[in-house]
Amino acid sequence: MASILETRDLKKYFATQKAVDNISLSVAQGSIFGLLGPNGAGKTTLIRMITGIFYPDSGEILFDGKKFDPLNDVAKIGYMPEERGLYKKMKIGEQTLYLAQLKGLNRKDATKKVKEWFIKFGMESWWNKKVEDLSKGMSQKLQFVTTVLHNPKLIILDEPFSGLDPVNSNLIKDEIFNLAKNGSTIIFSTHRMEQVEEICNQIVLVNKGQKILDGEIKNLKQQFKENLYSIGASAIPETNGSAPFEVSNTMNDETVIKINDGKSTNDVLQYLLQQGVVIHSFNEVLPSLNDIFIKVVEGTAHARQFQEIKD
Amino acid sequence: MNKIRLIIGREYLTRIRKKTFILSTVLFPLLYLGLILGTGYITAKSGRKMHVAVIDSSGYFTKAKIDSLNLLDSSSRLSLVTASASSLESGLEKSGYDGFIVVPATVAWDKPLPFLKLNTTHTMSMEGTAPVQSKINALWMSIKNEKLGIDAEKKRILEQNNIIIVPENIKDRKANSGVATAIGSVSAILIYIILLLYGSQVMMGVMEEKTNRIAEVIVSSVKPFQLMLGKILGIGLVCLTQILLWIFFILIIYNVTKLTGKADAMSSVVGGIQDVFTSSNMPLILSCFVFYLLGGFFFYASLFAAVGSAVNEDMREAQSLSFPLMMPIIFSVAMMTAVLKDPTGSLAFWGSIIPFSSPIIMMVRLPFGVPGTVPWWQLGLSMSLLIAGFIFTTWFAGKIYRTGILMYGKKPSWKEIIKWAFRKN
Hints:
Chain A has helices at residues 43-50, 70-73, 92-102, 107-120, 136-148, 166-181, 193-199, 217-224, 265-274, 289-297, and strands spanning 3-13, 18-28, 32-36, 58-63, 66-67, 77-80, 154-158, 185-190, 202-207, 210-216, 228-233, 245-251, 254-259, 279-285. Chain A is of the alpha/beta class. In chain A, a hairpin with a 4-residue loop joins strand 1 and strand 2 (18-28). The radius of gyration of chain A is 24 Å and the shape is elongated. Chain B has 17 helices and 4 strands. In chain B, helix 8 runs antiparallel to helix 13. Chain B is mostly helical. Chain B starts with a helix and ends with a helix. Chain B has 2 domains: 49-152, 3-Layer(aba) Sandwich (D-Maltodextrin-Binding Protein, domain 2), CATH 3.40.190; 176-422, no CATH class. The mean pLDDT of chain B is 83. The longest helix of chain B is centred in the middle third of the chain and has 37 residues, at 224-260. The A-B interface holds A 48, 51-55, 74-75, 77, 79-81, 83-90, 98-99, 101-103, 143, 146 and B 3, 6-7, 10, 14, 208-209, 212-214, 216-222, 224, 406, 408, 425.
């Protein structure tokens, strides 16, 4: 599939940090793409380069197959930063119109779009209210609307669910799927793994400014699996040297085993059947994204250290 | 450029519609007028008349002389008493006098009398004792006149000998230094107030965007420089609107009072305005005023924007960082008196050329006459330097702003801020 966004050897150094260090990635059109990484990994800096806020020190950004031209292409991007907000004293309708016009819509189109979205999210009565009258969840919804209003090809959401209750989270989540179905591409930046697993097709994991993982979630899970299986059975006999597996964890009726190198699932089943064990279930245990994340990031210091950068 | 227009529109409209704008536009001239009229009224009314007892041991100060002088000048009252100094001193509060003066017996009419002590129960300022002093002097003069045999006619002839120096610029005979001083100081003070007021408005506006966390949302649609420029231009327009409204008010008041022709306090102010309007250089001064007002605003506003972008929500940080910006503005006003005294001196020249002070100092000098006091080349140089200056500060501030607006955390030092300005992208 064609990629809407591609970066090649993107680099951005600050005075004391290699914020983004040689990151190349490719985001397929219409996909929901997860950009993951611990705090301070360089996600925000990377996003700021993609949205034209920062210029990269070196490297290339291709947007929709052409060299990224911040001046014109930003109109095709919708960005909801993690540090987000709205003018507190400005009326909501007026403010939404203003932000839409800054994205290049003319007043007439902007008014039409704003009204559509306000009806969709049940916000019609907000028009003449001020942002300071809204609760945190409400203003988050409004912020989401202002981000996607101009029908951008690429939508970048940085921690979009922070501060939202489950009902509003689901509303936004459904809308994300909807937008992707209608051809928009979504880059979703977070460190909340369960959400990524639920929403994204493809992820990139960055740490210390470098890309350390890249691929589809199901492939990554295969790549990081540790031959773990969960068995639901009457009772697992004590294992000795002759068993083709080791028990790694037991919980109620479920036992998690790790198959020894060189043995297959059939060897395990054969062994258990010979022992007269009654088996109810036998499933492969794939690592969660959280496990993968922790495994990959583990060992690096909890907080990024400052370092000297020599040009 | 369409986007800058949008930003200007938002900045302008949200500010114009605020109640504070309407209130300050209407109230400021009223307050200003009230202040001028009010202080005049208060000083006229509150001056308490001192009643001073005079104990004369020399025999020069007679009751007749004192009484006739009390009739002529009622700003204070003198009474000749015969009580002893010590009895007055112990019972001054009960005696009904505010103080007493003892004229010693050693005083001679043809010898200098450098001072007399005014004994009071509280410490008095020079201003408070001035009416008593002038009265005692008049009394002393009439005593000397009598001894010298100078009668009223001779006295009149003597007093004709008072020459007033009237400055007239031979290159510009119409220039009126009284009116020039008035226009110069009023426009300088006005520019001073507006620079500080609107400069800090720009700073607060930028801080608002940063603390509301809307800055990053906006700069993903427009360039930071466009956002900064839009804000400065929008607020500049608000400032211009306010000034034009004030000029409009003044014209209305002027015309209304001219029609009714009342000789009250208001029309004396109007009379002053009339002097100003008929002064020959008015169109030039007015257009220079608008130029220096806007030029000064643009020169400083972008720097204020840079400071606003560098600080976080803490007002104290903003104050300490904006202090170096306010210094030259305050300093210019402090130089005003010296420049008024000598509008062609080197302080006046340099002050009106350097863009940091030229918006204020040049406006002090201009009413004294162009090209009499300010040659055309100086005006041209000052204007072009101010334009070059604000292009530079806008560029410089833009670089700081771009980094600062997205930077949260600890307050940067000036050294770091300067570093932001000279960093490549």
